[in-house]
């Protein structure tokens, strides 16, 4: 493997999200600023909603004879 090709991965990076959450991780940079983290992302918070555009989800469920969980 060539020498000097890859950046140094020895920084303890502080990650700052726009929601105010901060955490530490390893990175090639010393500081990271992100717009979405696991604290505010809809998938991880359980606030994600399934969007049905043109009845595609219903058509798929009917095709494979599946039932959606009602919440």
Automatic annotation (TrEMBL):
One of its GO terms (cellular component) is ribosome. Zn(2+) binds at residues 17, 19, 37, 40. InterPro entries: Ribosomal_bL28/bL31-like_sf (IPR034704), Ribosomal_bL31 (IPR002150), Ribosomal_bL31_A (IPR027491), Ribosomal_bL31_sf (IPR042105). Binds 1 zinc ion per subunit. GO terms for biological process: translation. Binds the 23S rRNA. Belongs to the bacterial ribosomal protein bL31 family. Type A subfamily. This is Large ribosomal subunit protein bL31. It comes from Clostridium grantii DSM 8605. The lineage of its organism: Bacteria, Bacillati, Bacillota, Clostridia, Eubacteriales. The gene is rpmE.
